[in-house]
Amino acid sequence: MSLSNATTNASLSLQPAVETDAIIIGAGPAGLFQAFQLGLQGIQAHLIDALPHVGGQCSQLYAHKPIYDIPGIPVCTGLELVQLLEKQIAPMQVVRHLSQQVQTLQALDDGRWQVGTTAGALFHTRTVFIAAGVGAFVPKALKAPGVDELGTGQLHYHPQQLDMAAGRQVLVYGGDEEAVAAAIACSSSAARTVLMHRRDSFNAEPAQLAKLKQLRESGAVEVLIGQITEVRHGDGRLQAVQWMDGEGDEHTRPVEQLLVYQGISPKLGPLTDWGLALERKQLAVDPATLATSAPGIYAIGDIVSYSGKKRLILCAFHEATMAAFAAAEYLQGSKPLLEYTTTSARLHAILGVSH
């Protein structure tokens, strides 16, 4: 969607727009720290992310891998870093809108921006901060005949809640930590739990693997080594999957709920249609302010390009700070004071620091 007037679109929306000063697109480490820096400037922000949880790449791809270059933290995992950032922004009470991707970004008559998501949420905001990394991380789709004909509520990608498993025949498809955890969780409520992966090796923590081994031995979880080749249905209702084992033989397995964990992949998606200046699929910004080519829109992290840019988390933290100061000046019409968290009573009040 181009950066065009959208007053009529706002009036046609089925739900009222959320009014805010800032929208942050992307809830990875850069987006979380952006929320913190905006909070220090007294700017309330809403976070939007395509994943069902915050953390972006750090949570999804590096949850248990060590990171060694965060200032003051000799070593931490991706998950630990995200947990620390969440603790840091807790005083700001940042509102999160997860499992939805920003679809539209349009200019309003009054200088604000209208942001629309795939979940139908609508926002009117004075500033936008794009911290989308290399794009929105979205689940990899299952590609097999019959998938597109399924009705809703039967095929689930990386679901947060597993209520749909109760009393049903469930197939968990994948071999990572999330898939193993889902199979373990479903085993206590599902009528039958099957975990299918292309090889008999799972990428999970030792405690999870030990639990899976116990459930396999007891028959609570059946593990199948193979790949889905077809999804069978009747009148849009999931009935079974056809799958192929390592020898090339085909089999059929009754299934009522299919939970797919094939990983995630980054996609720029509609961002490329927003009319913002791009350089080799990255947003061009002013390194002094992280401002894009559109007034009130800033970008930080791996999604941006400028001379000397380094794609490191600590560089994104610096960019978030510069963007917050620039946005405060944009919103207030004057340069914000440079205050220090060690001495500022105003910042202490925001952070809930007591003396």
List the topology elements:
Layout: H1 7-12, E1 18-25, H2 29-40, E2 45-48, H3 56-60, E3 66-67, E4 76-77, H4 78-89, E5 95-97, E6 102-107, E7 113-117, E8 122-130, E9 136-139, E10 155-157, E11 169-173, H5 177-186, E12 192-197, H6 206-218, E13 221-234, E14 237-245, E15 250-254, E16 257-260, E17 264-267, E18 278-279, E19 282-284, E20 297-299, E21 304-305, H7 313-332, H8 345-351
Parallel strand pairs: 1-2, 1-8, 2-5, 8-20, 10-16, 11-12, 11-16, 12-13, 19-21
Antiparallel strand pairs: 3-4, 6-7, 7-8, 9-17, 13-14, 14-15, 18-19
Protein name: Ferredoxin--NADP reductase
Keywords: FAD, Flavoprotein, NADP, Oxidoreductase
InterPro entries: FAD/NAD-bd_sf (IPR036188), FAD/NAD-binding_dom (IPR023753), Fd--NADP_Rdtase_type_2 (IPR022890), Ferredoxin-NADP_redctase_2 (IPR050097)
Describe this structure in words.
The protein is of the alpha/beta class. The protein folds into two domains: 18-137 and 266-351, 3-Layer(bba) Sandwich (FAD/NAD(P)-binding domain); 141-262, FAD/NAD(P)-binding domain (3-Layer(bba) Sandwich). Helix content is 24%, strand content 29%. The chain has eight helices and 21 strands. The strands form five sheets. Strands 1, 2, 5, 6, 7, 8 and 20 form a seven-stranded mixed β-sheet that branches. The longest helix is centred in the last third of the chain and has 20 residues, at 313-332. GO terms for molecular function: ferredoxin-NADP+ reductase activity; flavin adenine dinucleotide binding; NADP binding. This is Ferredoxin--NADP reductase. Belongs to the ferredoxin--NADP reductase type 2 family.
